[in-house]
Amino acid sequence: MQQQNQQQLPQGRPVGWNVLPNYTLSGMSSFDAESLPDYSEFDSESVTLDYYKESVLRPPAEKMAPTTTIETITITRPLKVIAFICGVIVVVLMIMALASTDWLMAADWRQGLFVHCIEDDSVPPLPFNIQDPPGCYWTRDIGYIKATAALCIITLVTDVIATVLTGLGLKTQNHNLKYKFYRIAVLVMLVSLLAVLSALIVYPVCFAGELSLGNRRVWEFGWAYGVGWGAAIFLFGAVVLLLCDKESEEIYYKERKIVHENQMRA
């Protein structure tokens, strides 16, 4: 290889123009194409020098240290999913309880929260001295029946809100928003639980006060009253599951080391 430097400045260029020495390659020689920097015919000489310096200073891939990244993994806890399912079950149970006329039953008599029914061929005197013919009528204007119905409606509405909040907490990927949904859902479910327990306690206690007007020896609470207790049990379970499941258990941090391809080949 022979190297020749031209000392004369090109014509038409001002004095002080930076001139790169010209290199002439001759003879039999070989070189690796990857060792040459990427030049463009439109690059100026200063840009070309920057490319050359950068390629010289850049460490080779086999000498680069592995890169470590931290990944955030969100795992949906099964307890929260079960709490959501309990909330959905409570909605179904409360709708059944509100629509039923089998809260209180006796011979030829069925009483719900909104309607009471008199069976055919009923034997007088009817309970509570009612003089209506057989059929279904709006319930008696009694305070404890209205209070029980209002508490059951509050239970249904609050449980729907709490269940929706729990579902939003399961769906969202924002951790701060997720925990806020869970905390509000627990508080709303507690209100729902207190409401249904109050209804289930007030109804039989107040009915016992007018039992002397029942005109029947045997009284029993129907399946709708039992459904109310079932809703209370599922609500209690949902509250416990949301309270016991720790927030920190839902987020995990995982380190992953990235090894360059040349290091893997080596």
UniProtKB/TrEMBL annotation:
Look up and give the membrane topology term.
Answer: Multi-pass membrane protein
- Report TM segments: 81-99, 147-170, 182-203, 223-244
Subcellular location per UniProt equals: Cell junction; Membrane
Keywords on record: Cell junction, Membrane, Transmembrane, Transmembrane helix
Q: Mention any Pfam family matching this sequence.
A: PMP22_Claudin
| A single GO BP | cell-cell adhesion
Task: Provide the Gene Ontology terms for cellular component.
Answer: cell-cell junction; membrane
Main location per UniProt? other
Q: Return the similarity comment.
A: Belongs to the TMEM47 family.
What protein name applies here? Uncharacterized protein, isoform A
